[in-house]
Sequence to fold (136 residues):
Amino acid sequence: MPYYPYRCINCSRRFEVFLTFSDYGVKPVKCPHCASENVQRRITRVRIARSEDSRLEDIGSEADLEGLENDPAALGRMMRKMSKEVGEDMGPEFGEVIDRLEAGQSPEQIEQSLPDLGEAGMGMGGDSVETGDSFD
Fold:
């Protein structure tokens, strides 16, 4: 649908107008709030749909993966970018690890200072619960 975003210069309110392609640039646009024709078309963001694989490929191609082992700050930046690209909230612990890496701490130092990291809800050494249910 050809909806166009505008902003009224007089009342500063934002609104959208439906215009056919033949009406755009020909038909005058009025603010629905104050009826002013003193309006300006807003430029909106453009979204590009990409697969998760293509986003992760771009991250891997931009980073010098071999150099990350000796550069904790670069590793932290790559991890932060990767978490943004994936779009999932990784929790506060993940953010703390990234912050520490970017500050220059080595992964080994971080692991020693956070011994319980990864146990809460990550399936890495937490206690299992047996229900006794059988699914035969």
